């Protein structure tokens, strides 16, 4: 969707914000946003070559890892904690906790898109006992609260 955004940005720059907004309404597209986080999917690096970290990454995608902690990851790796943290960050460019949050938000996002489950249940399904914690992390990573994300999707599907 970068071409419509570019066209609307150019329209705004050349003809002003009012014309750009009217054009966006006419074309039934959202005005360009600075924040594109909602369109990004978490695609972890699995080609880094560190087999120990790769083992932990694969485990994190399984159901038993839903309530994983950094201590669990360290134990699975068989490394000392400091060594594990350093190697995990080197391989993934994220801390283990940030990586886990990205995985959970991605799964929560899928559930928001494909189910009508209440937010409390989605938070529980992805490993959060407190839906407020999930909501806060989702908002930080996606740029909008889960309810707004779901509402936006339902509006888009009505236009399709």
UniProtKB/TrEMBL annotation:
Residues in HTH araC/xylS-type domain copies: 54-152
Coiled-coil residue windows: none
Presence of keyword Transcription regulation: yes
A GO MF term: sequence-specific DNA binding
Keywords associated with the record: DNA-binding, Transcription, Transcription regulation
Record PROSITE patterns: HTH_ARAC_FAMILY_1, HTH_ARAC_FAMILY_2
SUPFAM superfamilies from the UniProt entry: Homeodomain-like
PANTHER family per record: HTH-TYPE TRANSCRIPTIONAL ACTIVATOR RHAS-RELATED
Full protein name: HTH araC/xylS-type domain-containing protein
Natural source organism: Acetobacter persici
